[in-house]
């Protein structure tokens, strides 16, 4: 049994034993936890991944005459300034007003850390004490009074892996997901990730000193959505001391901007229990692969897996070997753990005792919503036809029923195509007045009857179409939802 | 080894891949193809020992043939996250030594999918 004080004494005396998390696994296996706890004082952990819930508090100092910022932009990326006159918070996912998804808050933060100047633009309504109503200037990190990175949710202990059962490629915060279970992506660094090495939060708590993007930082509490074993941390650190090697602005294509955040946390091996925790292997760390093809909050679990299976590069789904991408960098995570080890050995990093524990149990509640409108309550009846219907018969139906879309079904009422008034006009214009099956679109974008209306709206917008056949999970036609149904919803009809 | 074929509207109508397969007596794997009304482009893979023969056959039909060596380039911007690993259709990328992302560019078929998924724009096609 050691104390944090004992370990810090050893750091000062230069005889502390520090190893990285990946090295600890074998040592405990070889020596057993009791002996390993005597041999090893500190295990350093690391993670480096996209962490959207991150940002920086900035204080710009006062202009002359003074301004109470009402709106503020850095390189055209808006920061939140609904606090004191020249304080602002820039979030990493905020997109540039002028450059959209290619540049955002994370890029501003990285530019500042790299010593580049950024353009500060602010507007205000003007008061007696802050008469100025606008300002434009160039600032760099050294011009700021404070630049404090404060991230509400970082260092996820583990994370749901992602795949996609749908027929479309999906661009998500979990990267690009290929159709029909084309790939799997996962985040987190498993056995070398900080929280997996202290799953009961015995040593990581409020006040724990950490390495945040290369700077000395602190854990300031549980992160938002903290829900062990999907635990998270809220952390802070001084942006002025950060190293661009351990952070990186990133763009998840089609999703938006985020920041790769690097975090290293020392695990003091106070007793054999901590040695046992720090011996955790990827084989013991479980997560779920969930299906992003279902655009709902509660996505179906495709499979339960361990981090070891994910890291093997291939996971079997429905008899096929599916390739796996990590999204967190094990390489940079390892460098962070090594950097932290070296700082402890160089007597430039001392351990702290948490001033308060973080709860090891907590639940993550869904949003309270008044109602979720689903497609089946909004859709219209569909007018189905068979593939052998004549095109001129279909054209008469369109006029008679006053519709633009005729879903095509087989004998089992399974949707196999769709014909629109445009298809028919085209068929007439080109003289192809045969059967419906010759002119129908076979790859139909559909929606499920239990899907929320917003899912239907998003699909219509994405594919630039004005109606979607509504089906059950077995592709049986149930109805049709059109842009008109959606506008009726908005007008309260 | 990979070859890049370019041909015009006259050849678009000809079954040149089948012809080359038969005449050069070798297997041809189509890696990428973009054939339209006016011209066509293909990237094919052939056994190294048969390359010269295959080139000769294609050229005899008026197909422009070049060795395909415009491969993906990974810059130092790479943070080794691995987003590209599961995306590449021909498995150019893998997690290798020291957990770094390695690119076996020789396999690249120039499809460009990886370029669009890299979160730090570390990949470019020449």
Key attributes of the depicted protein:
heterodimer, A: 493 residues, alpha+beta, 3 domains, ten-stranded mixed sheet, four-stranded antiparallel sheet, 22% helix, 31% strand, B: 126 residues, Alpha-Beta Plaits, 2 domains, two-stranded antiparallel ribbon, 8 strands
Number of domains of chain B: 2
Helix content of chain B: 10-25%
- Determine the CATH superfamily of the largest domain in chain B: ACT domain
The computed structural class of chain B is alpha+beta
Report the uncertain regions of chain A. Answer: none
Give a verbal description of the structure.
The complex is a heterodimer of chains A (493) and B (126). With 493 residues, chain A is an alpha+beta fold. Chain A folds into three domains: 4-52 and 150-345, no CATH class; 61-144, no CATH class; 375-490, CBS-domain (Roll), CATH 3.10.580. Chain A has helices at residues 4-13, 21-39, 105-113, 272-277, 307-311, 330-345, 391-401, 421-429, 436-439, 453-463, 483-490, and strands spanning 18-20, 42-50, 55-59, 71-74, 77-79, 87-91, 95-96, 100-104, 118-123, 134-139, 146-154, 161-163, 170-172, 175-177, 184-186, 209-212, 215-222, 233-238, 247-252, 256-268, 286-291, 301-306, 314-317, 320-326, 405-409, 415-420, 447-448, 467-471, 477-482. In chain A, the strands form eight sheets. In chain A, strands 1, 2, 3, 6, 11, 16, 17, 18, 19 and 20 form a ten-stranded mixed sheet that branches. In chain A, strand 13 and strand 14 (175-177) form a beta hairpin. The longest helix of chain A has 19 residues, at 21-39. The termini of chain A are far apart. The relative contact order of chain A is 0.13. The mean pLDDT of chain A is 95. By secondary structure, chain B is α+β, with helices and mostly antiparallel strands. Chain B folds into two domains: 2-67, 2-Layer Sandwich (Alpha-Beta Plaits), CATH 3.30.70; 73-124, 2-Layer Sandwich (Alpha-Beta Plaits). In chain B, the strands form three sheets. A four-stranded antiparallel sheet of chain B has the order 2-3-1-4. In chain B, strands 5-8 form a two-stranded antiparallel ribbon. In chain B, strand 2 and strand 3 form a beta hairpin. The radius of gyration of chain B is 17 Å and the shape is elongated. The mean pLDDT of chain B is 92. The A-B interface holds A 48-50, 175-176, 178, 183-185, 248-253, 258, 260, 313, 322-332, 334 and B 79-87, 91, 94-95, 98-101, 116-117, 119-121.
């Amino acid at each position: 049994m050691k104390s944090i004080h004992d370990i810090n004494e050893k750091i000062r005396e230069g005889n502390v034993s520090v190893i990285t998390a990946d090295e600890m696994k074998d040592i405990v296996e070889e020596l057993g936890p009791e002996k390993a706890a005597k041999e090893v004082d500190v295990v350093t952990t690391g993670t480096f991944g996209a962490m959207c819930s991150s940002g920086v508090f900035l204080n710009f100092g006062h202009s002359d005459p003074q301004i109470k910022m009402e709106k503020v932009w850095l390189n055209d990326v808006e920061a939140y300034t609904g606090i004191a006159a020249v304080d602002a918070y820039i979030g990493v996912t905020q997109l540039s007003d002028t450059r959209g998804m290619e540049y955002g808050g994370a890029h501003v933060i990285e530019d500042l850390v790299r010593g580049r100047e950024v353009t500060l633009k602010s507007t205000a309504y003007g008061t007696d004490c802050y008469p100025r109503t606008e300002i434009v200037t160039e600032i760099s990190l050294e011009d700021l009074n404070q630049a404090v990175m404060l991230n509400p949710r970082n260092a996820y202990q583990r994370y749901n892996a992602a795949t996609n059962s749908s027929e479309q490629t999906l661009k998500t915060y979990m990267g690009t997901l290929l159709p029909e279970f084309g790939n799997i992506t996962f985040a987190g660094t498993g056995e070398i990730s900080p929280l997996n090495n202290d799953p009961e939060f015995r040593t990581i708590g409020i006040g724990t000193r950490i390495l945040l993007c290369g700077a000395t930082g602190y854990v300031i509490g549980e992160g938002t959505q903290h829900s062990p074993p999907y635990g998270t941390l809220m952390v802070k650190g001084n942006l002025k001391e950060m190293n661009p090697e351990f952070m990186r602005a990133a763009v998840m294509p089609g999703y938006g901007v985020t920041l790769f955040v690097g975090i290293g946390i020392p695990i003091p091996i106070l007793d054999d229990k901590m040695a046992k925790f720090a011996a955790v292997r990827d084989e013991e760390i479980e997560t779920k692969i969930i299906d992003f093809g279902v655009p709902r909050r509660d996505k179906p679990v495709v499979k339960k897996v361990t981090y070891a299976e994910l890291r093997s590069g291939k996971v079997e789904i429905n008899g096929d070997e599916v390739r796996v991408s990590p999204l967190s960098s094990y390489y940079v995570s390892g460098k962070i753990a090594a950097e932290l080890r070296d700082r402890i050995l160089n007597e430039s990093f001392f351990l702290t005792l948490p001033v308060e524990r973080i709860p090891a149990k907590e639940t993550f509640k869904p949003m309270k919503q008044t109602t979720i409108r689903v497609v089946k309550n909004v859709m219209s009846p569909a007018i189905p036809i068979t593939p052998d219907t004549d095109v001129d018969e279909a054209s008469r139906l369109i006029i008679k029923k006053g519709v633009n879309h005729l879903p095509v079904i087989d004998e089992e009422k399974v949707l196999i195509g769709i014909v629109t008034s445009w298809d028919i006009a085209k068929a007439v214009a080109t003289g192809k007045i045969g059967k419906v099956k010759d002119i129908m679109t076979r790859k139909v974008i559909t929606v499920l009857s239990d899907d929320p209306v917003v899912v239907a709206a998003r699909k219509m917008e994405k594919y630039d179409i004005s109606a979607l056949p509504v089906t059950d999970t077995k592709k049986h036609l149930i109805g049709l939802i059109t842009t008109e149904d959606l506008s009726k919803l908005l007008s309260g009809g | 080894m990979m070859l890049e074929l370019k041909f015009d509207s006259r050849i678009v109508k000809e079954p040149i891949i089948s012809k080359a397969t038969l005449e050069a007596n070798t297997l041809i794997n189509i890696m990428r193809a973009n054939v339209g009304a006016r011209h066509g482009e293909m990237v094919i893979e052939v056994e190294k020992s048969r390359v010269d023969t295959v080139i000769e056959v294609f050229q005899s039909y008026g197909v422009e043939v070049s060795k395909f060596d415009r491969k993906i380039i990974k810059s130092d911007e790479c943070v080794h996250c691995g987003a590209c690993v599961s995306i590449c259709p021909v498995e150019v990328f893998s997690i290798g030594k020291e957990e770094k992302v390695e690119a076996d560019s020789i396999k690249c078929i120039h499809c460009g999918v990886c370029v669009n998924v890299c979160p730090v724009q570390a990949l470019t096609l020449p």
